[in-house]
Design goal:
globular; alpha/beta; eight-stranded mixed sheet; Rossmann fold; about 375 residues
């Protein structure tokens, strides 16, 4: 029996016997109203400005729709002018500003940050959502031209470094928010557990291995997604420490949306299976992100909650990684096997909640090392 056939059988079973969990919009609305100090009503986010990267598809598209329906003004960043125009048309032209940017190119990121700053007087929330995962073709048939224009690994450049630069450029807008707790939300993933952080350490001023665009090994490319997602959490924690030290009210948190029916792994059969098995991008697929945006600071196992998940199964995944001391090549095999398992079982227990992330993600030495190197890497555009 072939693997695709088994996957189809599992997808049909899940679709038939495990209905998709629903996003509780009333709960999100109430939480949002409390977070921004609004009176409970039809549009609790009236007057709130939210910037979302990757807003035209996948999780970004679903989140944009939910926040817009709650009254927010959306600053939508996307790569395709036609998709941005369609998004504006679909949302009714009101309370939405669209901006074109190619997040593989830091020149484009700096330009769009300038355009946003020129058109918007403040931001209340920034969601660094846009991201890519190497497709099978790119993993197995890697070519050097898949580096960014600045020579970085593409997944690292899009998922992490572009958002580092964009965030630095937009922090002044967040500082102008009159809300009590403006936030930056990093769209991370529980797959960050599969990175040990070594590829993200900038030793003696050398670029971290995860950033190298000329790395041709299969393992480098296979680990790229996990490394970039750990990088986002490291970035959020480094930022929050900086905000505390400077007395800023801005905070940075991270979220794992779980498996969501998007095109992140490509089109065709893979996308169809994801849409059948995973959370919908316009429903429960944005639940943990909404919690990350609006939940008041809380504690998880004695640590301030700054990482949010969409199902307790992702906590068990983290425990399993620690218990088995996953490392080396086995870590990469484990990522594929565990990924399929998580996709199959996450709908058994859909519940957004704060959680702990990997031990490495709390390592301030790695946080500071990556942050300093990143600042140098993007200094030309600051």
């Amino acid at each position: 029996m072939s693997v695709p056939f088994v996957a189809v059988l599992i997808a049909v079973f899940l679709k038939s016997y495990l209905p998709q969990p629903q996003l509780d919009l009333s709960a999100v609305s109430k939480l949002a109203a409390e977070a921004v100090g609004a009176d409970p009503g039809a549009l609790p986010l009236g007057g709130i400005v939210v910037a979302v990267t990757g807003a035209t598809s996948g999780i970004g598209r679903g989140l944009t729709s939910v926040l817009h329906d709650l009254g927010a003004t959306i600053v939508a960043v996307g790569r395709s002018p036609s998709k941005l125009a369609a998004l504006r048309e679909e949302l009714g032209q009101e309370r939405i500003e669209t901006f074109v940017a190619d997040l593989t190119d830091l020149h484009s990121v700096a330009r769009v940050a300038h355009e946003i700053t020129s058109h918007v007087d403040h931001l209340d929330y920034l969601v660094n959502n846009a991201g890519i995962h190497y497709s099978g073709d790119l993993i197995f048939k890697f070519k050097s031209e898949h580096a960014t224009p600045q020579g970085h690994d593409v997944a690292f450049g899009v998922n992490y470094l572009s958002h580092y630069l964009l965030t630095e450029k937009l922090i002044p807008l967040l500082e102008r928010s009159d809300r009590k707790s403006p936030r930056i939300v990093q769209m991370s993933s529980s797959f960050h557990w599969l990175s040990d952080g070594l590829d993200l350490s900038a030793v003696n001023g050398e670029p971290p291995r995860a950033s190298l665009g000329d790395a041709r090994s299969f393992l480098h490319r296979e680990r790229a997604y996990a490394n970039s997602k750990l990088g986002q959490i490291l970035h959020a924690r480094a930022l929050s420490r900086r905000f505390v030290e400077t007395g800023s009210k801005v905070r940075a948190v991270s979220a794992c949306p779980g498996w969501v029916g998007t095109k992140v792994l490509g089109d065709g059969l893979v996308q169809s299976l994801l849409e059948m098995m995973a959370y919908p991008n316009d429903g429960f697929g944005v639940a943990s992100t909404c919690l990350a945006l609006f939940q008041p600071a809380a504690a998880a196992a004695g640590v301030e909650a700054d990482y949010y998940i969409s199902s307790p199964v992702f906590e068990y995944f983290g425990v399993l990684v620690k218990k088995t001391a996953v490392g080396g090549v086995f870590r990469d095999v484990f990522s594929w096997v565990s990924g399929i398992a998580l996709l199959c079982v996450q709908r058994l227990s859909p519940r957004e909640k704060p959680s702990l992330s990997s031990l490495e993600s709390y390592n301030e030495t790695i946080q500071d090392s990556l942050f300093r190197w990143s600042h140098t890497a993007v200094s030309e555009w600051l």
